[in-house]
Amino acid sequence: MKMNGMNIKAKIALTIGVLVSMIVLLVALSVANLQILTATEPDSPAAGPGLNRALIWITVIGGICILIGIGMLIKLPASINSPIKQLADGILEIANHNYDVTLNLKGGEELVEVSKNFNRMARRLNEYHNSTLSDLMASKRYMETIINSINEPIIGLDNEMNILFINHEALNVLNLKRENVIRKSAQEIAMSNDLLRRLVRGLIEEGGKVKKEPLKIYADNKESYFQVKYMDITMPGKDGVTMEKRGNVVLLKNITEFQELDTAKTTFISTISHELKTPISAIMMSLQLLEDKRVGHLNPEQEELSNSIRENSERLLSITGELLNMTQVESGKLQLKPKITKPIELIEYAIKANRVQAEKFGIQIEVEYPEDKIGKLFVDSEKIAWVLTNLLSNAIRYSSENSRVIIGARQVNGNKEIEMYVRDFGKGIDPRYHNSIFEHYFRVPGTKVQGSGLGLSISRDFVEAHGGTLTVESEIGKGSCFTLRLKA
């Protein structure tokens, strides 16, 4: 009996019909033989052969029915299970991106229709996949072209620190080959590459921020300087709104030309400052001789001129000193000579250096110092005293006449650190400029007090060279408080 041309419903109906017919046949045969046997006398000579004949018929027909039933029960599930299994295997191939799979199901019109629809779907998926893959490959080549056209070294990393992309400049600087780095762990490659190790360590330590100090690299047979910048790669998450970090980009900007110009500028300023100190000192000595009473008395007009010469000479001397300090910091030649120093000694030095200026403007200097014993500092006392002197001088200059200025010290952070501070009650500093005032040559807009704009910058450099911090707290109309914190 062939079932391949039937649908599943017809197959099940036929099987059940055949099984029912065989059961009916057996029952009918048994009933007919039973009636024949009951109609025959038990003592009759025909009773024995009739019984045997009935048993043979029932046995033969029953065996044939059982064999047919077993055959149908075996063949029916197989005929149903086989196309289902083929369909499941085809779906699995599609799930594994094998779009070339085709089905040829047999066993009924509906299975043939399923095969046609499945094969049509596979063809369309294959066409879509090929077109999408082609677009992706084109986009990938386009992006690689853009990245390689960038003249600055650039490296892309995923969250697992595997290298996603790297341009020719970066390969040249790192002395690596593309086939040895793409999709490889940057941390593993860094074990045998010093420069990459510095970049990876910087990414972990800097936390995605711009590295302040330039990186010196020997490239193209010369020393080059690069500014390292770390940027996050972010993409929309599953909700399409929340941005999720997918990796980092390391960008090295070549600043060799600017570094050379900056070095030339520093050398020029240092040379000019040294050259200016000699004539300024000569002017100060000549002025001192001119004002000596033993030479002769000056009339009021001459005395006013001499005072003006002294003030401007002292200002020039102060500026040249600041410039020299700045060049020491920028050239890396700043040398610290630390020694054990009491904070009160530094405060007293700053007060003494600014006493004349304070008396000139009628400023009262108040000292806040704890009665309990305060720790000592291991610092270059000359440079920290210069910082306090500069802060106190600024406080006096920016305070109104006949006001007060506070200078003090305290122990903080479980007596592990010492803070020294200078507070004035002048017009204060706009919060917008709290960071800018520590930059070279910056002066708050509208400031009428004369200055070079270097004092605070040099002060912060001196403090940070000791591993400390210099911060400001200020509000418009409430004055300012500059605080330097150092380890006790």
TrEMBL record:
Keywords: ATP-binding, Cell membrane, Kinase, Membrane, Nucleotide-binding, Phosphoprotein, Transferase, Transmembrane, Transmembrane helix, Two-component regulatory system. GO terms for biological process: osmosensory signaling via phosphorelay pathway; regulation of DNA-templated transcription. It catalyses: ATP + protein L-histidine = ADP + protein N-phospho-L-histidine. It is a multi-pass membrane protein. The chain crosses the membrane at residues 12-34, 54-74. Residues 139-185 form the PAS domain. Residues 78-130 form the HAMP domain. This is histidine kinase.
